[in-house]
Design brief:
By secondary structure, the protein is α/β, with parallel strands linked by helices. It folds into two domains: 377 residues, no CATH class; 137 residues, STAS domain (Transcription Regulator spoIIAA, 2-Layer Sandwich), CATH 3.30.750. The protein has a five-stranded mixed sheet with strand order 3-6-7-8-9, sandwiched between helices. The two termini are 55 Å apart.
Length: 561
């Protein structure tokens, strides 16, 4: 088995590439590029950077992810999920801090792919994913309230936290600019109804073109100048910036490492989730480790050109598929289209109203929220609901880093609890019914447990979560038999705590002149016990029996001595 394999889908798809495939990829790439334009601008501004940085991210990251990725149709770029994280990093550490954090996240993603941990990411509990995705959606919506209503805060700085933002909004709600509100509501309405007329043309693009044109005419001929545009807040540069490698120092790396982990985990989850959804539609299988490496390289290179974190984008990937994209060439064409727009048409972006972009992000947050899924999960077991709600509220009230950390901790604890609940320990004092030993009727005589012998059966893993349960049960029994048979045929594994607990148990029995006999120890558990020196020093070779019949015979011999 090879330690490391890197197989970009581009290489395998080019072997049988045809003119028909190219024409399909060309059309899909152009459409996806147009779809990506308003989203890239909106994500850039909402993240706290200039609009062209969103487009640069879509160009550089989109190209690398398609060129090196493990999916045929994955489209990479900036996504709504990162908005909250990026904004928080910029507020605290500035643009340079964001660059360092993104670089580190890229390195972490590459390492995840190199060490073949792509499959591990898929084991993150679904309630956690839904919880923080819904939390991000609500947070994105919250950040857009000021632009939707055109609120003025004077010299007051907008707080970073959720509750602080809403308190500030209510305080200054008397400054509402209703023209802004009309523009936002009109944008949301246009985006919502566009699919009813055309599924090919993105609603966000239609809204931006129509609303921008109307607002421009209102400013020029109607004298309405109170609607802020991108040009009123940003100076747009229609060129790719020079590559700049940031200065790295240990203090910055140490401070930003937790944030980098959050970016990497979120990027890995979203990209692999997007690739998995795409697989289901096109009937293909992506290479998760290759995809992670591509995502990592994209996040290492993109910040050098002034970009922000990127990942696989589900909406754009589905747009690619629905418009006929066959191979990674479509993703490369989408990046080229965006590059041409940046170089040739970017000055026109200054006329786009901020309220219109806010409307675009309201739709993005609504689609991201997955409220129907959220509502459905509330009917699940209480443990899943608690993980969902805790992750959701931590994401909203604190931040995503805290939410992921605590969500994973809680999920692990609840998982261990479930395993503990499934592990059963029973005691038999009189006879064993062979018909209860399996799902087949064996018509054998009952096995009689000799007087002075107790049979304990452990059904499930013997790990640190269950180790004390056995001790407590025997303490509650309160009797002193001559022999204790421990049936371990249904113990799939044992950890160091389990071994330690079993050793203490044998020591206690030895002090009370009780002999322990093990029955049906499987090979894996046997090897663990043998390595620790437990088997022969504490139990003795003769007291390790292959099955219950032999164990009962051995117990009888001990009792009769």
């Amino acid at each position: 088995m090879k330690a490391f394999e890197f197989k970009p889908k581009l290489l395998s798809t080019m072997k049988n590439y045809s003119k028909e495939n190219f024409m399909a990829d060309l059309m899909a790439g152009i459409i996806v590029g147009i779809v990506a334009l308003p989203l890239a601008i909106a994500f850039g501004i909402a993240s706290g950077v200039s609009p062209e940085k969103g487009i640069i991210t879509a160009i550089v990251a989109g190209f690398i992810i398609s060129f090196m990725g493990g999916s045929k149709v994955q489209i990479g770029g900036p996504t709504g999920a990162f908005i909250v994280i990026i904004y928080g990093i910029i507020q605290e550490y500035g643009i340079s801090g964001l660059t360092v954090a993104t670089l580190m996240a890229g390195v972490l993603l590459i390492l995840l792919g190199v060490f073949k941990l792509g499959a591990v990411i898929k084991f993150i509990p679904y309630p956690i994913i839904v919880g923080f995705t819904s939390g991000i959606a609500l947070t994105i919506f919250t950040t857009q309230i000021a632009d939707i209503f055109g609120l003025q805060f004077g010299d007051e700085k907008v707080p970073g936290d959720f509750i602080g933002k809403w308190l500030l909004y209510f305080k200054h709600f008397d400054t509402v600019n209703w023209w802004n509100a009309i523009v936002s509501f009109a944008s949301v309405f246009i985006i919502a109804i566009t699919p009813k007329f055309s599924k090919k043309i993105p609603g966000s693009l239609v809204a931006i073109v129509l609303v921008t044109l109307v607002v421009y005419l209102m400013k020029m001929y109607g004298g309405i100048t109170c609607i802020d545009t991108i040009g009123d807040r940003f100076t747009i540069q229609s060129q790719l910036p020079d590559a700049v490698v940031p200065e790295l120092n240990w203090e910055a790396i140490k401070n930003l490492f937790p944030v980098a982990i959050t970016i990497a985990v979120l990027g890995a989850i979203e990209s692999l989730l997007s690739a998995a959804v795409a697989d289901g539609v096109i009937g293909d299988r992506h290479d998760s480790n290759t995809e992670l490496i591509a995502q990592g390289v994209a996040n290492v290179v993109t910040p050098i050109f002034g970009g922000i974190p990127a990942t696989g984008a589900i909406a754009r990937t589905m747009t690619n598929i629905n418009n006929g994209g066959k191979t990674p060439i479509a993703g490369i064409i989408h990046a080229v289209v965006l590059l041409l727009i940046l170089l040739l048409l970017m000055p026109l972006a200054q006329y786009i109203p901020m309220a219109c972009l806010a409307g675009v992000l309201v739709i993005v947050s609504y689609n991201m929220s997955g409220w129907r899924t959220f509502k459905g999960l509330l009917k699940n077991p209480k443990s899943d609901v608690s993980v969902l709600l805790i992750t959701f509220f931590l994401t909203v009230i604190f931040d995503l880093t805290v939410a992921i950390e605590w969500g994973l901790v809680i999920a692990c604890v609840l998982f261990m609890r479930r395993v503990m609940e499934t592990t059963e320990i029973s005691v038999i004092k009189d006879e064993i019914d062979p018909n209860k030993e399996s799902d087949l009727e064996v018509h054998e005589e009952h096995l009689i447990v000799p007087e002075g012998v107790e049979v304990y059966e452990i059904n499930g893993p013997y790990f640190f979560g269950i180790a004390t349960k056995f001790e407590e049960m025997m303490a509650n029994m309160g009797d002193r038999p001559k022999v204790r048979i421990i049936r371990m045929r249904k113990v799939p594994f044992i950890d160091s705590t389990g071994v330690h607990n079993l050793s203490n148990l044998c020591d206690m029995c030895k002090k009370d002149n009780i002999q322990v006999v093990l029955s049906g120890v499987n090979e894996k558990v046997h090897q663990v016990l043998e390595k620790t020196g437990f088997l022969y020093t504490l139990v003795g070779k003769d007291n390790i029996c292959p099955n219950i019949n032999v164990a009962l015979e051995r117990a009888k011999e001990i009792v009769e001595k």
